[in-house]
Automatic annotation (TrEMBL), chain A:
Keyword RNA-binding: no
Main location (coarse class): membrane
Descriptive protein name: Sugar ABC transporter permease
Keywords carried by this UniProt record: Membrane, Transmembrane, Transmembrane helix, Transport
A Pfam family it matches: BPD_transp_1
Lineage: Bacteria, Bacillati, Actinomycetota, Actinomycetes, Kineosporiales
Protein species of origin: Kineosporia mesophila
Domain of life: Bacteria
Segments of this protein annotated with the region Disordered: 1-26
Location relative to the cell: Cell membrane; Membrane
CDD domains: TM_PBP2
Family: Belongs to the binding-protein-dependent transport system permease family.
Residue ranges crossing the lipid bilayer per the database entry: 35-56, 118-143, 155-175, 201-223, 244-266, 303-325
Keyword Endoplasmic reticulum recorded: no
Domain ABC transmembrane type-1: residue ranges: 118-321
Automatic annotation (TrEMBL), chain B:
Keywords, ordered alphabetically: Cell membrane, Membrane, Transmembrane, Transmembrane helix, Transport
InterPro entries for the chain: BP-dep_ABC_trans_perm, MetI-like, MetI-like_sf
Organism: Kineosporia mesophila
Domain ABC transmembrane type-1: 94-284
Protein name per Swiss-Prot or TrEMBL: Carbohydrate ABC transporter permease
Compositional bias segments (type: Polar residues): 1-14
Pfam families: BPD_transp_1
Compartment(s): Cell membrane
Length: 335, 298
């Protein structure tokens, strides 16, 4: 039972508190700001150094050339200014051609796979996050209810998430193998990872199975705060179970759900380990991060440009997601 | 559980509800824990849990039994797979993993609780931008961030050092920890915070003695999530450690690769590495539900 997500109670507290707070804010506002900054400073500094540095570095490198043979056949040491050429390579599929002219990349070139990898990544994200949210919500509601053995279920459900991806992916290889466990159980003889549809399905199944506990745990934590009284008064008002879910549970659990969906989306958008181990990106499973991994072998600076593009795409999606859940987050934060 | 029993309904809406709910706890169990619900819950869990059970059982089989078609679930019982794991020296790797996960989780809490408090209670200008900045640390493909981090760590001579992993895991988990804790803190009635401030309590004391007890379930969930993320982390551990500071996921993948795809050993490895998480889960799940004693607030 944590502190609630109860708009009703919150509003009641707000109206009485707001007036008082306004007065207080004026007098000690500067002091509070400084204090808040002090509390935030260690975190901000740490993240700026450890996470900010690689981002700046990637952006800088993305404007440099990679070593290799240049268009006139001379060896180029790389790391000279390249302008937007790396970006053009990915976004417009422009490859250096003979005689110094740029031409469109041949099929099979990594650059030519860029847009399909964007589509595949976003497809994976939408499908897995949606499935994980729905199943995770079911599990959370289930674990929230009181029943015998609840504690055991709560812990047991964590197991898939508790096993490192690298290990679990190997286990799925065994399961999806043509002579593997799944075919044995189903009595079929199907090569799961050799066609794009089933290969994608295999990755989605493996990812949903592994990460649903994460979302379930977050929603469960959010559910702890909802008091029974709200449900009871809704019942008195004649709301059925479905209405109670849509009108009470969902809005009140939204802050926790927002955190779960946003962070989960950011992880799937950068997913590479699971598809890499299951299919090596073959059969239409090349995500943006797998493309980065592949490109790293042939040119660091071009890979940096790809990383920067990925960064910007995810930035835009994150902005959209935050806006989507905004109502809750911002209203609570500002006062 | 709570010291306050005589709040008026108006001033103590949330507090009273909370109190009532806790008092009703056992009653709920009888009321809602009906047979149908219990059965449904267990069936759902079992479907989800079937691969885990299969993995667990297979880990105690010999490789020959594990490879049969269709899979036998109740073949001869053997501890060979586990002894193979320990023969290869999994112990130090488990200790490294535990160190990195536990210390980084504690560090995350120490940094994230004050930060989330500052973001949700104190009026921070442009706080949404700050929250989005935390999010932005999750936009770059992790594989792309690896090389600059590797070079940075190499420069300061921190390769194969467990404390470097602790610092990196802390940075890795801070954003989600702050977002989670902030979502819990945003719902603490401002009166509670203000009452404590007016009494002249120092900020850190307010956080420790007022805020922390109220959001215990949130803290429990956050810790568990940070612990599991660190426990499972593979990329950084693989790249930045060699022998002395290597963690169990790195060991396990090496073990699997060197042994070939032997199913029973793979299952034993997966089972072994999930055990500490189960222990952490048991420790946290208690707090996750019980949480909150408002006696401290009053």
């Amino acid at each position: 039972m944590s502190i609630t997500s109860e708009p009703i109670a919150e509003n009641a507290a707000d109206t009485s508190g707001k007036r008082r707070r306004r007065k207080r804010d004026k007098t000690i506002h500067t002091g509070e700001s400084r204090l808040a900054f002090l509390l935030l400073a260690p975190t901000l500094i740490m993240l700026t150094v450890i996470v900010g540095y690689p981002i700046i570095k990637a952006i800088y490198q993305s404007f440099l050339t990679d070593p290799g043979l240049d268009s006139s056949g001379f060896f180029n040491e790389g790391n000279s200014w390249n302008g937007l050429a790396n970006y053009k390579h990915w976004l417009l599929q422009q490859c250096p051609g003979a005689g110094g002219v740029t031409e469109s990349c041949p099929t099979g070139n990594l650059g030519a796979q860029f847009w399909s990898s964007v589509g595949i990544t976003i497809g994976f994200t939408v499908v897995t996050v949606l499935l994980e949210t729905i199943i995770g919500m079911c599990f959370a509601l289930m674990m929230h209810r009181a029943f015998k053995g609840r504690a055991l279920v709560r812990v047991a459900i964590l197991i898939p998430w508790a096993i490192p991806t690298a290990v679990i992916a190997k286990l799925w290889i065994v399961i999806f193998d043509p002579q593997g466990v799944l075919n044995n159980v189903l009595g079929t003889d199907f090569a799961w990872t050799s066609e794009s549809g089933p290969a994608r399905a295999a990755i989605v199944i493996a990812d949903v199975w592994k990460t649903t506990p994460f979302i379930a745990l977050l929603i469960l934590a959010g559910l702890q705060g909802i008091s029974n009284e709200i449900y009871e008064s809704a019942k008195v008002d004649g709301a059925n179970a479905w209405q109670r879910f849509w009108r009470i549970t969902l809005p009140l659990v939204k802050p926790a759900l927002a955190v779960a969906v946003i962070f989960r989306s950011l992880d799937v958008l950068r997913m590479y380990d699971l598809p890499w181990i299951l299919t090596q990106g073959a059969n239409g499973t090349t995500t943006m991060s797998i493309l980065v991994v592949r490109q790293l072998n042939s040119g660091l600076n071009s890979a940096s440009a790809l990383s920067t593009i990925t960064f910007i795409i995810i930035f835009a999606i994150a902005l959209g997601l935050v806006r989507l859940f905004n109502a809750n987050i911002v209203e609570r934060g500002t006062r | 559980m709570s010291a306050q029993t005589t709040e008026t309904p108006k001033s103590g809406t949330i507090l009273n509800r909370r109190k009532k709910k806790s008092a009703q706890g056992e009653g709920d169990l009888a009321e809602t824990g009906g047979f149908v619900w219990t059965t449904t819950a267990w069936v759902l869990t079992l479907i989800f849990f079937a691969p885990v059970a299969w993995m667990f059982l297979t880990s105690f089989h010999s490789e020959a039994d594990a490879a049969t078609n269709p899979p036998t679930l109740l073949a001869g019982f053997t501890l060979d797979n586990y002894s193979a794991l320990f023969d290869r020296g999994v112990g130090p790797f488990l200790i490294n993993s535990a160190t990195a996960s536990i210390v980084s989780t504690l560090l995350v809490l120490a940094l994230a609780i004050p930060a989330a408090y500052a973001l949700s209670i104190k009026p921070v200008e442009k706080w949404t931008d700050v929250m989005f900045f935390f999010l932005s640390t999750k936009f770059l493909p992790s594989i792309a961030a690896l090389l600059p981090i590797y070079l940075l760590v190499q420069k300061i001579g921190g390769l194969d050092n467990i404390w470097i992993l602790v610092v990196l895991y802390t940075a890795m988990n801070l954003p989600i920890a702050i977002w989670m804790l902030q979502s819990f803190l945003a719902e603490v009635p401002k009166e509670i915070m203000e009452a404590a401030e007016v009494d002249g309590a120092g900020t850190l004391r307010v956080i420790w003695s007022v805020i922390v007890p109220i959001i215990t379930p949130g803290i429990a969930a956050t810790s568990l999530i940070c612990f599991i993320f660190s426990w499972n982390e593979f990329l950084l551990a693989k790249s930045l450690t060699a022998v002395a500071a290597s963690t169990s996921p790195v060991f396990l993948v090496g073990f699997i690769t060197s042994e070939g795809l032997f199913l029973a050993k793979l299952c034993a490895a997966a089972t072994l590495v999930s055990l500490p998480v189960l222990i952490a889960g048991f420790a946290a799940q208690d707090k996750l539900v019980r949480g909150l004693s408002l006696g401290a607030v009053k």
